[in-house]
Amino acid sequence: MTRMRQTAPQTQDQNGTRARHRIASGRYEGNDAVFTRLPGALARAMLVVLLIAIPSIFLPMGGSDGQQIVALVAIFAALFTFVEYSASAPSIIEFRDAPPFNRLRFGALFVTVLTLSLILQGENGAGSLSRLIHVIGDRVGESADFPYSPVRLVILMMSPATSPEVLHHVRTAAGISYLLSLMSIAIFIVMLRMKRWPKRNGAFNVWVNLPTFDPTVGGDVVARLNRDSQVNLILGFLLPFIIPAVIKLISIFVTPVTLDDPQTLIWMMTAWAFLPASLLMRGVALSRVAQMIHKQRKRAYAKAVAEGMLPV
Fold first, then answer.
1. Among 29, 22, 48, residue whose Cα is nearest residue 106
2. Mind listing the pLDDT tens digit for each residue in 51-67?
3. Are the CB atoms for 23 and 293 separated by under 8 Å?
4. What pLDDT was estimated at residue 231?
5. Is residue 173 a contact partner of residue 117, using CB atoms and an 8 Å limit?
6. Which pTM was predicted?
């Protein structure tokens, strides 16, 4: 009787609202861990600054106002990144301590912005590398521009008065950015299968890696994670088709959307391709976490039954 009375809280902990405590040792880390994260947080902040500055480096702006805006955005993004990665528990960024999830997403974003910058720089007769990437981008854009494809929808969202040169740039940028987003999703799925993400990195701390997820709200944790995963997967699949339709409606009823400026084109096409890919990757990651919690519950229940703490 004593053993069975002591087991009831443990069983409730596995199936109740405190399931995340069983996946990690604790919510917060020691002060030593905070100081060891400072160099990494500083390096990530510098990489964010470089990412935001890349289009301005390859395609300089004519006025000083644009440069000041870029510098201001880079500073705020760097401060946010530094605070999130140096704190003991982040407030927004998910899967902070579950590499390579965020590294892969940032790498895909960095490569997309860099590639589009080199492609548009190649229009001005720049170096051989820019011209080579520009030619590859043209081929990818033409191959991806077929009926009912996301790239074709991006072309159709443009105003009828758009010049053929701008349409050519939009097609190339859309094709290469969408291809890179698909490649990032495929790489993440392969790494998830081959390297057993995220368990290979030790204990998975749900408090740190899912700061916006509250297990005390709603029903079962596993069911909520699976539901959130499905929502992210559906949105990630539909957004490449929905975004051009929304922009087309804005052009018709509000104001025409133009992508004549190269830097505007780079960030628009990057966001159009990266946001759906990020949601798809997040959906896969949440599904993986739900599977981990479900398997851990089954193991804990089977152990309790084997030790005679629960009725068979």
1. 48
2. 999 998 888 776 667 78
3. yes
4. 97
5. no
6. 0.84
